[in-house]
Amino acid sequence: MQNTEKTLEFRKQDLEENYKKMSKKKKINSTTVIGLIKDGKSVIGSDGQVTLGNSVMKHSAKKVRKIFNNKILVGFAGATSDAFTLFERFEKKLEEYKGNLKRAAVELAKDWRTDKYLRRLEALLAVVGSENTLIISGTGDVIEPDDGIVSIGSGGPYAKVAASVMLKYTKLSAREIVEESLKQASEICIYTNNHITIEELD
Questions:
Q1: Residue 86 in contact with residue 121, Cβ under 8 Å?
Q2: Which of 31, 27, 29 shows the shortest CA–CA distance to 59?
Q3: What is the Cα Rg of the chain in Å?
Q4: At a CB cut-off of 8 Å and minimum separation 6, what does 188 contact?
Q5: Each residue of 108-145: b (16+ CB within 10 Å) or e?
Q6: I want to staple 50 with a disulfide (CB 3.0 to 4.6 A). Which of 23, 58, 116, 121 is the partner?
Q7: Is 69 left (phi over 0), alpha (psi -120 to 50) or beta?
Q8: What is the full per-residue pLDDT of the chain (202 aa) written as tens digits?
Q9: Strands 33-38 vs 41-46: parallel, antiparallel or unpaired
Q10: Which residues are catalytically annotated?
Q11: Alpha-carbon distance 57 to 8, whole Å?
Q12: Contact indicator for 125, 75 with CB cutoff of 8 Å
C-alpha cells in the first residue's frame, strides 16, 4: 500500500510538471475537465466554476458539449469565447475530414499555431470520441494519453490521478469514474467546484 501511495504521488508530480509546460505560453487554469473511455462508453465531464482574478463569477458554467452530430465530446479550459471559436473550427475540420478525429485534431492544431487570429486564443481542448481521446493545445500539440484519460485545467492532475486509480482498482462505470474524479478535484483545487456537468456518447 505504501509503495502504491508513493507511485501515485510521483505520477501526480509528473502530471503537474506536464501541465506547467503545456500552460507556459497560455495561462490555463480555473477549471477541471476530464474524459475517458471504458467498456466502450465515452464520457467527459467538468466542474462549473468561472473565476475572474480572485473572485468566483459563476458556479454553473457548462464547459463540455457534444459536436459533429453528437458523435464527439469536447471540453475546454480557458477563455469561454475562445473555446467556442475553437469548437466551431474543430467541427468544420471534422466535417472536412469526414469524421477522422485524429486528422481533424492535427489540422486544427496546425491552424491554431500558425493562424494570426487563432494563435491568440487561450484555451486547451479535451476531446473524446468513440475510440480515441485527445488533448489539443495552441502550441501545435495533439496528445493521445497512453491510459486514455484526458484531463485539463488547474484541477486536471488531481482528477487524472483519481481516475487512474479507479480504472485500475474498481469496477465503476466510465460515468461514475468521471463524476467521482471531479468531486475529488473539487476538494483540492480552489478553482474547481462540485457543480458537475457530464456528457456521454450514446
A1: yes
A2: 31
A3: 16
A4: 155, 158
A5: bbebbeeeeebbebbbbbbbbbeebbbbbbbbebbbee
A6: 58
A7: left
A8: 555 555 555 555 555 555 444 444 444 457 999 999 999 999 999 999 988 878 888 999 999 999 999 999 999 998 888 888 999 999 999 999 999 999 999 999 999 999 888 888 888 999 999 999 999 988 889 999 999 999 999 999 999 999 999 999 999 999 999 999 999 999 999 999 999 999 999 8
A9: antiparallel
A10: 31
A11: 33
A12: yes
DSSP secondary structure letters along 82-129: HHHHHHHHHHHHHHHTTT-HHHHHHHHHHHHHH-TTGGG--EEEEEE-
Could you tell me the domains of the chain?
2-200 (3.60.20.10)
The beta-carbon contacts of 6-11 under 8 Å, at least 24 apart in sequence, are: 8/161, 8/164, 8/165, 11/161, 11/164
What is the pLDDT, as a whole number, of residue 46? Answer: 98
Which amino acid is it at 144?
A: E
Query: What is the 8-class DSSP label of residue 68?
Result: T
